[in-house]
Description:
Blueprint: H1 30-56, H2 59-67, H3 71-81, H4 83-112, H5 115-145, H6 148-163, H7 165-183, H8 195-208, H9 213-227, H10 230-233, E1 235-236, E2 243-244, H11 249-258, E3 263-268, E4 270-279, H12 280-288, E5 302-303, E6 306-309, H13 314-324, E7 328-332, E8 338-343, H14 344-352, E9 366-370, E10 373-377, H15 382-389, H16 401-409, E11 418-421, E12 424-432, E13 435-443
Parallel strand pairs: 2-3, 6-7
Antiparallel strand pairs: 1-8, 3-4, 4-5, 7-8, 9-10, 10-13, 11-12, 12-13
Helix pairs in contact: 1-4, 1-5, 2-3, 3-6, 4-5, 4-7, 8-9, 9-14
Amino acid sequence: xxxxxxxxxxxxxxxxxxxxxxxxxxxxxxxxxxxxxxxxxxxxxxxxxxxxxxxxxxxxxxxxxxxxxxxxxxxxxxxxxxxxxxxxxxxxxxxxxxxxxxxxxxxxxxxxxxxxxxxxxxxxxxxxxxxxxxxxxxxxxxxxxxxxxxxxxxxxxxxxxxxxxxxxxxxxxxxxxxxxxxxxxxxxxxxxxxxxxxxxxxxxxxxxxxxxxxxxxxxxxxxxxxxxxxxxxxxxxxxxxxxxxxxxxxxxxxxxxxxxxxxxxxxxxxxxxxxxxxxxxxxxxxxxxxxxxxxxxxxxxxxxxxxxxxxxxxxxxxxxxxxxxxxxxxxxxxxxxxxxxxxxxxxxxxxxxxxxxxxxxxxxxxxxxxxxxxxxxxxxxxxxxxxxxxxxxxxxxxxxxxxxxxxxxxxxxxxxxxxxxxxxxxxxxxxxxxxxxxxxxxxxxxxxx
Length: 449
């Protein structure tokens, strides 16, 4: 069979289908067909490299370069935002390259080999060449070059896209419409930088030395701050120093001598009925101005209390307390009872780490005994114990290590009691009534309960 009588075949990589339109191969110069095939393959490789480079460019670094006035970074960032138009433009160029390379390859095969076998050989060779040289190699190189390559091509590419916008804009409208139809409200503008990306960058910066350890810890605390609930950071009601509404200033002086706090919550009848807060500054002002005496009732110095649910987010409460000028809030549980209190100082501690806190013991929450043993305060949070000591305690309907022990045992333990849990020997060394004050944890290895 004469190859000139064959129907042409446009070889494809999944984008271009076969055509049955005949062509005359005898009138096409070999060098022209070879040139077109080479240009098509080169264009295909370039387009694939550009695609992976543009999509994979680090947005955080782009924003940093934009702040320094980089026009190339601004152009690259705009390309990332125009996903539909950009991918439509890329697909058009890819198909143009495939058509050019496959058609000219078919011409060369027909002239050089003739017949069906020439077409088959051209298909195999072009498929391998376009997969290897046109996709794999360019994408790998673009990924390793870094941001320099996409910055170099961003502005010319943006200009070329504008020239072809009469064609690409209508074509991009259909996938945009289809995406909105299928995804609805979930389709939106992707944030320039997500929280996960920032946290990853912080971790990487700390590992590579770009950030000091203390700086990385502070930034990580900022992210955790907004996620935590008030119940996780509050002082439980059993640890709060309360004043009864009927008390006089003389009684307050005695309480203050043992517990020099700056504020005291006041209750009437029961701590579930909090009626206000006494601020020591108000007491001193009243004494200085001669408005109160030791026999005065503390209710004359009370301020209204701020009540918040224990499920409230710490970040929201911090903003509320800042705007209202409140320094203390009463935490209420789901049944309306008093769960505890939280202060602005406690919230600040969540941001900057441990600071001197008048409402909590000034001793450390844990003390190393040796490299495998620690003495812990029962009020230490499970999150802190896992993070700082690597205990691996499971999460549950509790916040503290003492809460974990009660949940695990299902009863109130005795002082001196010990048990083994997942390679940890836990011994209760000090109780205060039904409260677990202090315990010792020893890492045993691979033992399990």
